[in-house]
Amino acid sequence: MFSSERQWLCRVVERDGTYEEKHRGIPMASSLSPLMGAFYLAELDEKAEKLPIFYVRYMDDILSRSLNQKKQCQIS
Question: Residue 1: what pLDDT?
Fold first, then answer.
């Protein structure tokens, strides 16, 4: 395994005064987070574009508005 891959996959996280070693997932605030967010939320973005609603997303923050509650629920 490359050393850069180890950096992403193996890290120590502090939570409530205890330290825990993590071997999976992407660390918070890493440069991979926006890329992975875009990848996983692409389907939601495409679906929202087809509906008659106001929809905007920045990373994992989503705002949507609709005049019709039924249309708003279709995005879920």
Answer: 45
